[in-house]
Amino acid sequence: MAGELPGLLVNEIGGVHGILRGHVAFLKKHFYLITMKEFLENRKHMSKKVQAIYLWWHKPVIDKELLQSLPNLKVIANSGVGMDHLDLKLVASFGVKMANAPCAVSSSTADTGMALLLASARRLVEGYHIAISSGIEYREADFLGVEVTGATLGIIGMGSIGYKIALRAKAFEMNILYHNRTQRKEHEEQAVGATYCKKIDNLLQQADFVMVVVSLTPQTHKLIGKRELELMKPTATLINISRGAVVDQEALVTALQTGVIRAAALDVTYPEPLPRDHTLLKLKNIIITPHLGIKTDKATYMITEEAVENILAALNGLPIPSEVLPS
Predict the structure, then answer these.
(1) N or C, where is the chain less crowded by C-beta within 10 Å?
(2) Band of residue 140 on the pLDDT scale cut at 50, 70, 90
(3) 291 catalytic, yes or no?
(4) 250 is catalytic
């Protein structure tokens, strides 16, 4: 019976870049799973079986050689929103459809953004180290964070994730500014009390916290650089939950070292992980987490469910719910 199911190529099962073991049983209900190891060991036999690829953590790597070796490949499903790791035009040139998982990731990523904002504002990581240190009776009197309630949050990128961040920020009574390629509808703005900034400079100059939530494209590469950091308040905090390359890391290092901005909190860097001797890892006014945006049990399972829905639609010639087209 397994042989009758469409073949789904995955990088591996478990490990650092493999699909989660807890998702295997669900996937096997719909597909005959083929790992890259199995494919490479028996390429001649397996190549015709693969009809779909499920990317987990950007793996397996999709290149021309792999695409040429899969004559029956119809769709590639990505376990997340960002597609910057794929050459969309190359994939499309082989007649292969592509899909991402925007519905499954928005809430968990928004939660991560707010967690980083709060942790940085209240200096939770520093406070933790003080609390567990030997020889310290208590924290010094001037160990102070900054107030979140009533502060101004600037959201760069008001897609589904950015909007959910705004919903959360409203509950903290924050003033919300946002910059986006297109302005949200008036009733959507009013629902979260958000004000549109057509120019990013206006947002940067006013915000106490700047949250970056954009896709990585040639237009957003190093969107936040030296000029943008210098526009921010010296008391401001930069939070990046999009892609590492959206921020100029060298400019950020200088800004943090010289007091151009107060602090930063990053869930993404470039590369990931950073080299162990990177200056960002040595600064006290930064929090770095290992790309935890979607890492919850519920969110990851929802991602796999969304991927399966997209793949089955493609294989059955139906509209793909989350299809991504090359620009």
Answers:
(1) N
(2) confident
(3) yes
(4) no
Decide if 184 is catalytic: no
pTM comes to: 0.89
Residue 220: count of CB within 10 angstroms of its CB? 19
Q: What string of DSSP letters covers 240-254?
A: E-S-GGGB-HHHHHH
Q: Residue 160: is it exposed, middle or buried by C-beta count within 10 angstroms (0-12/13-18/19+)?
A: middle
Considering 12, 126, 230, 272, which one is annotated as catalytic? 272
Distance CA 87, CA 270 (A): 19
Alpha helical stretches, state H, 133-277: 160-171, 186-192, 200-206, 226-231, 249-258
Catalytic residue among 23, 291, 306, 309: 291
Q: How far apart are CA 94 and CA 105, in angstroms?
A: 28
Q: 190-216, pLDDT tens digit by residue?
A: 999 999 999 999 999 999 999 999 999
Is the Cβ–Cβ distance between 311 and 26 less than 8 Å?
Answer: no
